[in-house]
């Protein structure tokens, strides 16, 4: 049975002391739950403070991205062993914002500089290969833009994203993989993907895993939904059979909202 997972992606919000305060609140409310897995993903600088706040609870720590080399002259980057050293168990990879939405959304940035800021299928594959040997569990995000959906390319895009990120990795290495289906048009927009459609795509993700690997891996990997999940809409999404949890952005910054979302997950 796949254990439900609710992850909070705090994005570029909360200083270390603010993060520790939110983590302490969550610890008091839901810190001892073992029926589901709950992961907090603060900004890099807040990781140690949040790790301290959730020490000896059931809450887990995750980072929002990582570089693929262990050490070296890579100014500004953070390595997999650094994340492990501060207590991370999970790392988000391929979020649409780190895949390059900053550039797309920012009128001041010329399209030609986008590749320098963006994760690509090739760099994501490097990151996947880099984190797994350190025991970090990837939360790999995939999802289509509105234009891609409207053109009928959703499945094709998701398959290409999965094939790119997982290239050269064996099933044995991927049992702890978590995949988040995050339609780009539903992130931070208040436009949630309909539960049945999110379930269909989660099922499609399993189908891709089945064809790339085998039935066992397709059944073990947890598939989350992400995109404008709130306490008021989480219930139907989290009760879909192919969906094993949620990657929550904005609503994860509010202790009440996030707590309520965790109670919408069925315990399997
Ligand atoms: P959102 O973000 O919940 O604010 O839409 C989700 C995400 O980006 O992971």
In short:
The chain has 268 residues and is α/β, with parallel strands linked by helices. Helices cover 41% and strands 14% of the residues.
Structural topology:
Layout (H helix, E strand, L loop, with lengths): L4 E5 L6 H15 L6 E5 L5 H7 L6 E4 L16 H6 L4 E4 L3 H9 L8 H4 L3 H11 L5 E6 L3 H5 L3 H13 L11 E4 L13 H18 L2 H6 L1 E5 L7 H5 L6 E4 L6 H10 L4
Parallel strand pairs: 1-2, 1-8, 2-3, 3-4, 4-5, 5-6, 6-7, 7-8
Helix pairs in contact: 1-2, 1-12, 6-8, 8-9
Bound molecules: 2-phosphoglycolic acid.
2-phosphoglycolic acid (PGA) binds next to strand 8.
Explained architecture:
By secondary structure, this protein is an alpha/beta fold. It has a single domain, classed as Alpha-Beta Barrel (TIM Barrel). Helices cover 41% and strands 14% of the residues. The chain has twelve helices and eight strands. The protein has helices spanning 16-30, 47-53, 80-85, 97-105, 114-117, 121-131, 146-150, 154-166, 195-212, 215-220, 234-238, 255-264; strands at 5-9, 37-41, 60-63, 90-93, 137-142, 178-181, 222-226, 245-248. An eight-stranded parallel beta barrel has the order 1-2-3-4-5-6-7-8, surrounded by five helices. Helix 6 packs across helix 8 (154-166) and helix 8 packs across helix 9 (195-212). It is globular and about 45 Å long. The protein starts with a strand and ends with a helix. The model has no long low-confidence stretch (mean pLDDT 93). The structure holds 2-phosphoglycolic acid. 2-phosphoglycolic acid binds at residues 9, 182, 187-188, 226-229, 247-251.
């Amino acid at each position: 049975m796949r254990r439900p997972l609710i992850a909070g992606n705090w994005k570029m919000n909360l200083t270390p002391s603010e993060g520790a305060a939110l983590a302490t609140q969550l610890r008091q409310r839901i810190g001892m739950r073992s029926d589901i897995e709950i992961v907090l993903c603060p900004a890099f600088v807040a990781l140690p403070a949040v790790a301290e706040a959730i020490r000896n609870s059931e809450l887990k720590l995750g980072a929002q991205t990582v570089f693929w080399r262990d050490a070296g002259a890579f100014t500004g980057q953070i390595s997999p062993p650094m994340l492990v050293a501060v207590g991370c168990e999970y790392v988000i990879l391929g979020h649409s914002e780190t895949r390059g939405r900053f550039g797309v959304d920012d009128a001041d940035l010329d399209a030609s500089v986008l590749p320098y800021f963006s994760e690509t299928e090739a760099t994501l594959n490097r990151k996947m290969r880099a984190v797994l040997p350190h025991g970090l569990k990837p939360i790999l995000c995939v999802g289509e833009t509105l234009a891609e959906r409207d053109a009928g390319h959703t499945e094709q895009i998701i398959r290409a994203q999965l094939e790119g990120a997982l290239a050269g990795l064996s099933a044995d290495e991927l049992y702890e993989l978590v995949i988040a289906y995050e339609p780009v048009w539903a992130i931070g927009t208040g436009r949630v993907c309909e539960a049945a459609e999110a379930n269909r795509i989660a099922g499609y993700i399993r189908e891709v895993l089945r064809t790339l690997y085998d039935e066992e891996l397709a059944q073990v990997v947890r598939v989350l939904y992400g995109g404008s999940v709130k306490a008021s809409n989480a219930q139907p999404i989290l009760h879909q059979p192919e969906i094993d949890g949620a990657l929550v952005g904005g609503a994860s910054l509010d202790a009440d909202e996030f707590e309520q979302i965790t109670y919408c997950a069925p315990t399997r």
